[in-house]
Amino acid sequence: MADPAALLRKLGHAVTERVWRLGFAARFFVAIIIYSGASFRRLHLTLREVFFSGVLSLLIITVSGLFVGLVLGLQGYETLQRYGSTEALGVLVALSLTRELGPVVAALLFASRAGSSVTAEIGLMKATEQLKAMDMMAVNPIARVVAPRFWGGVISMPLLAALFSAMGVLGGWLIGVVFIGVDEGAFWSQMQAGVDFRFDVWNGVIKSFVFGVAVSLIAVFEGYDSVPTAEGVSRAITRTVVTSALAILALDFVLTSFMFRGA
Amino acid sequence: MNRSVLDLWVGFFVALGIAALLFLALKVGNLSSAHLSETYVLQAKFDNIGGLKVRGPVKSAGVVVGRIADIRFDAATYEAIVTMNIDGRYRFPKDTFAAIYTSGLLGEQFVGFDVGGDEKMLNAGDTIHKTQSAVVLEKLISQFLFNKAAEGQDQK
Q1: Angle between helices A203-224 and A4-34 (to 10 degrees)
Q2: 10-residue block means of pLDDT along chain B (156 residues)?
Q3: Total-model pTM
Q4: Complex ipTM
Q5: Is A35:A142 a contact under the CB 8 Å cutoff?
Q6: Among A12, A142, B48, B86, whose CB has the most other CB atoms within 10 angstroms?
Q7: Chain B interface test: which of A44, A177, A261 (most B C-beta within 10 Å)
Q8: Residue A7, exposed/middle/buried by CB under 10 A (0-12, 13-18, 19+)?
Q9: Which of A54, A85, A169 comes nearest B28 by C-beta?
């Protein structure tokens, strides 16, 4: 193993493999866009995927949003009371949720809840040669299987992120106003004064849309590109979760640096 | 194509998501309260704007009457030019005094209009000439210290 030439070959192989996959993923993305006409003409295909990736994620998204809001309420109050400005709790909770935590945590949960199952589904379809069978019947598997799942994820993600943020704000309100006793009027009015719709809320929606595209693309691609064996599919699912998480956090940094450069 | 239970759930989900978005827009954000539909532009020149920020509020008698649209540096006079979008419903007299205040000890800074008694009103695009800069805490403290020192010399 200590042979430097072999080591170099291995490195070169790994790099070429990654670049190859990246190029294939880009071509795959273009193919999804081209063949996505069918997923809107036959809307029930896409609606079914919205059900599986969106509706079934409702529980995890709302409950986690509520708990994140509760924690933000407690921690925010604990820090703000040192400066005697506990009325600012509303702004703190709302801004951190709409700008960052809502889109990012919802996307991470979405990747592990819905993205992984999409990868598993497509991967198993490939392993059991259903995709090939469709090709034989002159049904394009990208138009019939992949594109509806992609668009289902893209549609669900912004809605789930908005729901997460809203539940989080309610959680912060529950802790701050109901349990600790921050003044209710100050809580909401400071929040409304500090949160701008276009700058804060809308940028969060844009973020969650971008995350939705990224996570859905990674999920369908990993499933489509998986090695058609039991082990290959399980590896593809792991890769979906890991790659999605990294992509979400990296994209979040890029988007944040564009949106909130601190005027 | 028949309606199915699935459609009901998807409809429920989309309605819930849109409701959350509306909640964020109306209850959390300020789309309803501070949405300035018709605005006109006023400018003011300050020697020092302190920590004034774009999108900060413009207040008169404590009520938000506009937002700061732009802050620029005038290379000719070495002053800061603050451009403000003022709510079209409110007009201010020509001798209105624009000052930079701080809300609370650690709060944000805003432009406050102290209204004068002139009968002529400011028009769109006008510049407010009477301004007062932000209070710089260091200057205030050093002034206080110098005064104390001067008092001490008088007593000798």
Answers
A1: 110
A2: 78 89 81 64 88 83 86 90 88 88 76 86 85 81 87 71
A3: 0.76
A4: 0.77
A5: yes
A6: B86
A7: A44
A8: exposed
A9: A169
